[in-house]
Write a structure and sequence with these properties.
This protein is α/β, with parallel strands linked by helices. Helices cover 41% and strands 19% of the residues. It is built from nine helices and twelve strands. It has helices at residues 11-23, 36-47, 90-107, 120-130, 144-158, 191-197, 210-228, 233-247, 292-311, and strands at residues 3-7, 28-32, 57-60, 71-74, 112-115, 138-140, 165-166, 185-186, 189-190, 252-261, 267-278, 281-286. A six-stranded parallel β-sheet has the order 3-2-1-4-5-6, sandwiched between helices. It has a three-stranded antiparallel β-sheet with strand order 7-8-9. A three-stranded antiparallel β-sheet has the order 10-11-12.
């Protein structure tokens, strides 16, 4: 069990706190927000349901209360509006992140940090550059949600358990992300062969329309925002999964945003490839062989992010 601090109690931050509490993933959850009354209200609402869950202390506090946190989750910042890209938020949320970093790292210097606020790749980069934390302790939620959306769509298409689908989204958490189809499979069968090897009386599955699937994955967030104003359930579940991996005794590969140091010829930018996450942070990276086209797409995504980095004041 662990102590987890959540900075920002908007829809995402409060839902993460609720999901952690219901899942019994922590024995202490601290909520911090510039709107102290909002944080107090969210903590009280969750706390009054704890008799139906595993015991956990949930309370609102200040940065000082984050002392001895095992994990700090940052969700602060302006939310994306309908029709707005994640990158449009860049400078405002960079400034918010820069104001948070010295305050939280003073009291929780040994915690593993999970950056959730958008644009997540830019803010993860800011955390790496503006804090004294080791990079192994800085995780951007990256494309873990995009990967979940991808797997959900493939699972629906073939009516197969999502846990049998092994496919990933690499690059920016945004428009320049892509699926490296060369490493995608269902139960170790390459995606492009799967519909041909199903032995079933009702095998009426056509080949997968990869372009349609990628479009679905990329547009899902915007569609949810258009329909209900915000996305927070799926992203909260994905962040709680990262927390679970950080507290587990067995390492797990995740598509999280991390600093690149020459992998696939990319450096000095944070984006998502496969990283190995285990107790207390990033344990390493997994660099599967990609096609030349996929490497080109990954580099293009990195270049897009570098353009934004150059345009903001870090």
């Amino acid at each position: 069990m662990s102590k987890i601090t959540i900075i920002g109690t908007g829809s995402v931050g409060s839902t993460i706190a609720y999901t952690l509490a219901v899942g019994g993933q922590a024995n202490e959850i601290v909520l911090i927000d510039i709107n102290a009354e909002k944080a107090l209200g969210e903590a009280l609402d969750i706390r009054q349901g704890i008799p139906f869950c595993s015991p956990v202390s949930v309370y609102a506090g200040s940065y000082r209360d984050a002392c001895d946190s095992d994990i700090v989750i940052i969700t602060s910042g302006l939310a994306r509006k309908p029709g707005q890209s994640r990158l449009d938020l860049a400078q405002t949320n960079v400034d918010i992140m820069k104001s948070i970093i010295p305050q939280i790292t003073t009291y929780a210097p040994d915690a593993t940090y999970i950056i959730v606020s958008n644009p997540v790749d830019i803010l993860t980069y800011v955390m790496c550059k503006c804090s004294d934390l080791p990079e192994t302790k800085i995780i951007g939620s990256g494309t873990i949600l995009d990967t979940s959306r991808l797997r959900a769509r493939i699972s629906e298409f073939y009516n197969i358990n999502q846990q049998n689908v092994h496919a990933y989204v690499f690059g920016e958490h945004g428009d320049s992300s892509f699926v490296p189809w060369s490493i995608a499979n269902i139960s170790n069968v390459p995606i492009h062969e799967y519909h041909n090897v199903i032995s079933s009386e009702n095998n009426l599955y056509p080949s997968l329309n990869k372009e349609e699937v990628e479009n679905y994955m990329k547009k899902s967030g915007a569609r949810v925002i258009q329909r209900k104003g915000a996305t927070f359930y799926a992203v909260s579940l994905s962040v709680c999964h990262i927390c679970k991996c950080l507290m587990a005794g067995m390492d797990t590969t995740l598509t999280i945003s991390t600093m690149m140091h020459g992998e696939y010829g990319i450096s000095d930018v944070c984006l998502s490839t496969l990283s190995i996450v285990g107790r207390d942070g990033i344990r390493g990276k997994l660099n599967p062989a990609l096609t030349d086209e996929e490497i080109m797409l990954l580099r293009r995504s990195a270049d897009n992010l570098k353009t934004v980095i150059k345009s903001v004041n870090i």
